[in-house]
Fold:
Amino acid sequence: MCGSPTTICPDKNTNYHIRRCSNKFPKYMNTDATIPKTIAEPAVVWIVVLHYGGPEYTRRCLDSLRKLTFRPAGIVLTDNCSPDSSGEAIANDFPEVEFQALPENLGFAGGSNAGIRFCIDRGAQWVWLLNNDTEPDTDSLAKLMQVAAARPQAGALGAVVYSPNKEGFSQSGSGTIDFVRAKTFEKGSVDQTAAFQSCQWLSGCNLLLRREAFSQANGFDEKFFLYFEDADLCHRLILNRWECLLVPSAHLKHIGCVSTGENLAVWRAYYHTRNRLLFFMRHSKGTDSLFAWLAVGTHLLRHAIVLPFRGKKGQRQLKAEMLGLRDFMRGTFGKADCLDF
Structure:
């Protein structure tokens, strides 16, 4: 990384705008940390923070990265065309961070792909993808890289996620896929004594990806735009004989729903319905695909009966779900243009 921390210039290979950053970390950043002894040679690790709204959370996330005991080769803040255009101002306060401005909202899938490929183009062997509303523990990246070094077939790794709730924090563990009931979920229990746990998928809010695995899978499928793209990528990695590993000793706090904000109900209803069908019809085998159809169909039928009696909010949710079903049947994917109601 080189050049002035305030220079804005177009990247040669894309239409994105890149701000080159200082190659010096601030004095209060832990630059004396050594790579864990289990790693024979320094691994080139970059971090992508995907930003779309919630600037105060993005600042906290970037500040937490300054405290990591494993120093990354670089950090990029990828602004997914935030409505408040706050990304560049945030990056200016973090001179160690490079800034990538996308010309339009590409969704989680497209925005993540752009950020990860930005890092790979600069020599990254590993890329740690983070939501802007996450705050990793200081040793989390070191713990992930210890396992990564010991598992040559590890294509994706993730830390245990702690999310705030009324009681304090809830813990999310290994991702599981139920192809009969057409559901993906994360187990709440984690074996803290295990060095790692194999799982069927990992949350995209913190995903450490090996360059070769990501490139072989051709990244996230941008048909999803939002929701199920992480489960889809992990499933394809496993089909390509890569491992998806949860590292219980690595911890991270995740607020959740910052990017979707007040539009969460409509967005989630639409994208969850459409992409649930896309994922399970793509990956279910034999009779499982029939059971998956029945599970989704029963869910939508129940909502068609109940939601009209739950006021305007329920009616909006039902409309979004029906639009999601319609677009799946039409083969219309990517960013939806029917949610302005």
In short: The two ends are 44 Å apart (CA to CA). The chain has two domains: 8-254, 261-330.
